Amino acid sequence: MTAPVSPHLILVTGAAGYVGSHCLVELLTSGYDVVALDNCINAVEGHLPDTLPESLQRVQSITGRSLLAYYKADLNNATELEDIFSKHRFSAVVHFASLKAVGESCKIPLEYYRNNVGGTMTLLDTMRAHSVRRLIFSSSATVYGTPEFLPITEEHHTGRNCTNPYGRTKYFIEEILKDLCASETGWSITSLRYFNPVGAHPSGIIGEDCKVPNNLMPYITQVAVGRQPFLKVLGKDFKTKDGTGVRDYIHIMDLAAGHVITLDKILQEGWTGWNVYNLGAGTGYSVLEMISTFEEATGVPIPYKICDRRCGDVDELWADISKASSALNWKPTRSLADMCAHSWNWQSKNPMGYRSAAEGDGSANGVRQSPVKVPDAAVASGVKALNGKSKSFDREVNNNDEDVTVF
Ligand code: UD1
């Protein structure tokens, strides 16, 4: 695959996670050069020393391009960040790295604030010190909290209705970013508020890797592959078309395309200050509609039981995407059936996610399993330097790794 060479080098934080890895595919195929950073708190690492995390090896296989460098590094470590920024001249940063589990955030809020808010502060300090002032921030519809009108526009207030610490970290970061843009000219920061990203790269080579899923689509695919006996439909007494919760599901590759389009914009002269866009499909589907669409798209039956509601779930939530559509000229193109078929393609080829390949015989999926060496400079300063170092906090408290997807 050939891609036009771009003069721009992009730093991607949280690169090995679900959204990060799919965006990397789009960035690399669009010709951007990329330095990837991840603390691997929730990524499956390469099975040989000094190799890339499994997801990043596969990104390279899909695109036929190499990352310029990969650093296993934590955003809260200012020294490491300084080192990385000293080695590379970045045009912009795409910032995915974040803890994202709603339930866990209620149990260990300080870790969420330290990781998400603190990590972003360190990143911004380092960016400013190196005069890198273009940023795309991975935000979430969770900043809207319980919606007061539908479809939700970017003008809907944020923060006030947030129902959990995870959501508040995204809200607080957005406030910090707004203040920063107001305080100094030259910053160009765009926050992309995701609705419910699902699906996988159509190849089935990368996808969402969950041990124990919290969200609907990974749960459905694990039922389909036999890792879970049945789906729990969490409530049938919502004020919706069939009583089950309604959400706005967006194909992960449409979401990824939205990042590249945004990046193209913020690299243009004159595209400055604070901007925010919803990235969703603009349509709501119920849980029962998701089940029936999945069954039709894949031919795999999904047994389910109606169970009690999960605490904090809202009735319905879907996006008004007209702002992104007009300002960015972005529109999602994949259907709900595509989302289901691609999720299933990934899960059926990788029943245990990336772990099957990283821990197995290396033959899974036709994907090259030989180690992909990290560029020497990156190994020296990133991977090797960090091996054996303690994580930013003690994750023994969390017994569900999926909860802490880099996102
Ligand atoms: C969740 C997160 C939100 C995050 C978003 C990203 C929670 C409470 N919220 O939102 O912060 O930004 O994902 O995708 O985790 N459902 C079932 N059975 C299940 C799982 C879910 O019936 O096993 C239902 C839920 O009740 C809901 C719908 O499926 O109606 C979607 O749930 P989920 O995929 O967890 O997404 P959100 O709750 O919208």
Description:
This protein has 407 residues and is an alpha/beta fold. It has a single domain, classed as Rossmann fold (3-Layer(aba) Sandwich), CATH 3.40.50.720. Helices cover 37% and strands 14% of the residues. The strands form four sheets. A seven-stranded parallel sheet has the order 3-2-1-4-5-6-11, sandwiched between helices. β5, α6 and β6 form a beta-alpha-beta unit. α5 packs parallel to α6. It is globular, with a radius of gyration of 20 Å. The relative contact order is 0.19. The site of uridine-diphosphate-N-acetylglucosamine (UD1) has 19 residues, from β7, α7 and β8.
List keywords for this structure.
globular, Rossmann fold, 407 residues, binds uridine-diphosphate-N-acetylglucosamine, 37% helix, 13 helices, alpha/beta, seven-stranded parallel beta sheet
